[in-house]
Amino acid sequence: MEQKLGYRNTEGRSGEDRSRAAAMGNSGRMQGRDTCGCGKECGDYNYGTVQECEQITLAFPPQHQDKQPGIESIMDPKPLSERESCGRRLEGKVALITGGDSGIGRAVAYDFVKAGASVALVYYDEEQDAAETERRIRQLGGACMLLRGDLKECSFAQDCVDRTMQRFGKLDVLVNNHAVQFIQDSILDISPEQLDLVFQNNIISFFYLIQAALPHMKKGSSIINTTSVTAYQGHKKLIDYSATKGAIVALTRSLALSLAEKGIRVNGVAPGPIWTPLIPASFSAEEVATFGRKTSQVPLMRAGQPCEVSPCYVFLASDDASYMTGQVLHPNGGTIVGA
């Protein structure tokens, strides 16, 4: 059968992965013949596998990580960060991407490099993920620099911009993409320390980066902010996180109005449930096993992959989006939201 975008057949796995799959037994499999109703014999599927029948949903093995924002290198299956290139639409541009070591940020970095951009990637402390992302970018023939630190510190945000300018001599695109989230059953369970952390990291740091980057940006430059479907739908167990994502929408719209006369565009992307390290770092193992299908259920009945979100950023960063500012794109699996 023909494999579809982003899903690995067990036959292509490493010996270690095959051993893990075998050890899972029936609990680690999507069983079934003709499970999608297509009339064909679909066979016995392992986690992370989808073939010709698109209706077969993607399931994830139960897993949980104890540290935010999560480590991609220990996820099973690994998030899919690449798809075919769509041309050199960002030729000669320089982009600063936060959360660039893994997940959506990694996929954006790959797509930007394939489109002709050089990238500076900011990450917190996920050394293995960052090194893997840098290695792949070098393999693609791209220019990349890594910036490790805490964006809750205003001085580090300034340092990221300064070092990007020193290395590349300009800054055309700023992608604010970093975030943390913590599941709480009630607003009463959100401690002052958590509240401060989530707002400092998820929204106040965006201001730091924009203030540092803006003096170097010119007409035709672009700022892209990652918000979330939770900004529009809410989430009863992610109240503080959802509030920061709503603030990002308001920031995007207001800043777009402020910078329109300078010719600097400001837009956002509001992903739905996407398979990134933030998911096993946030949800229980049981919730991860139904992510996209029951947990954070969407009409397409599966979680998205980072490489299904990253083209939104390429579009918004390119001249193809020259008549778009103050807007938000919604790669969310079919959830209907207000603009």
Question: Topology, please?
Answer:
Layout: H1 15-24, E1 29-30, E2 45-46, E3 94-98, H2 103-114, E4 118-123, H3 127-139, E5 144-148, H4 154-168, E6 173-176, H5 192-213, E7 222-226, H6 230-233, H7 239-259, E8 265-269, H8 285-289, H9 310-317, E9 328-329
Parallel strand pairs: 3-4, 3-6, 4-5, 6-7, 7-8, 8-9
Antiparallel strand pairs: 1-2
Helix pairs in contact: 2-9, 4-5, 5-7
Proportion in helices: 25-40%
- Overall mean confidence score, pLDDT: 84
Number of helices: 9
Give the topology string: H per helix, E per strand. HEEEHEHEHEHEHHEHHE
Report the principal-axis shape: globular
Number of E strands: 9
Task: Give, in spatial order, the strands making up the sheet with the most strands.
Answer: 5-4-3-6-7-8-9
> If you compute it from the alpha carbons, what radius of gyration comes out, rounded to the nearest whole angstrom?
20 Å
- Measured by DSSP, the beta-strand proportion falls in 5-15%
Name the structural class.
alpha/beta
Ends distance? 39 Å
Sheet having the most strands: 7 strands, parallel
Low-confidence stretches: 1-57
Describe the structure.
The chain has nine helices and nine strands. The strands form two sheets. A seven-stranded parallel beta sheet has the order 5-4-3-6-7-8-9, with helices on both faces. The chain has a two-stranded antiparallel ribbon with strand order 1-2. It is an alpha/beta fold. The model is unreliable at about 1-55 (pLDDT under 50). The protein has helices spanning about 15-25, 105-115, 125-140, 155-170, 190-215, 230-235, 240-260, 285-290, 310-315; strands spanning about 30, 45, 95-100, 120-125, 145-150, 175, 220-225, 265-270, 330.
